[in-house]
Amino acid sequence: MKGSLTILSFFATGLLIGLFRWIPASWISADVSFYVLCALMFSVGFSIGHQPNTIKQFRRIHSRVLFLPLTTIIGTCAGVLAVSAFFKHSAAELLAVGSGFGYYSLSSILITQYKGAELGTIALLANIMREILTLLFAPLMVRWFGNLSPIAAGGATTMDTTFPIIVRTSGKEFSIVSIYNGFIMDFSVPFIVTLFCSL
Amino acid sequence: MFIVLVFMFTGIVAGYLLRSRKIRFQNGFILTLIWVLLFLLGLEVGMNDNVVRKFASLGFEAAVIAIAATFGSIITARLLWKSIKKHEQ
Fold it and tell me: What is the mean pLDDT of chain A?
């Protein structure tokens, strides 16, 4: 809980400073967060390599974990279907939005192409929110839904942006699962989004 | 995106080579970098006029879908986790 609140407060502070332009926009570029991400990945890698025990733990991971991307797709679709009756868009359109699995840049571009800017913008916002939800609530997810849940929530982002928080909350022994999941989901997004847009 | 993985694997090799030395700072360092990254993400979202402007009209629908999609996937992840735990015993 404390972990989520600290993360939320850092995000909220950034959001407010950005909204009210308390610092000039020219100070910030996407490059800065990329450099921080690279530094983070190096540190996470360092802490994995520094403890040979972690590398041994990779072997203890159960083969059923390989099904994680599949259960994530099923769970995501079931969740979206459960709320689809409340909106004017068709179930297939909303499933296409959900099938971005957090990969907002690609899914929003694809959906804009197939279905227009409005649904594309919904896809952009919904998938940014999925990434933010994962980053904010990963500590709570582990406690309430088990160690695989932040990886499922992170979807296509578990290989990069949500990777550090997953290693931090689920444990270093899950880093290989996180990369495997992100890799499979990344490649699934264009196919699944296209499928639902053509229905 | 793959350049990020290159950084991680370089880190693994560096960490492995230095495994005999005691280095304790890295956990606090990782947490600090996570905070910086979240702060920067907030900053980017807040400064993106396009996202902020459209948030009022399309934000609610997007939020409901995001929460439903995330919640659905963590429930199936819990089922998978439980089946693994059961199988291990």
Answer: 87
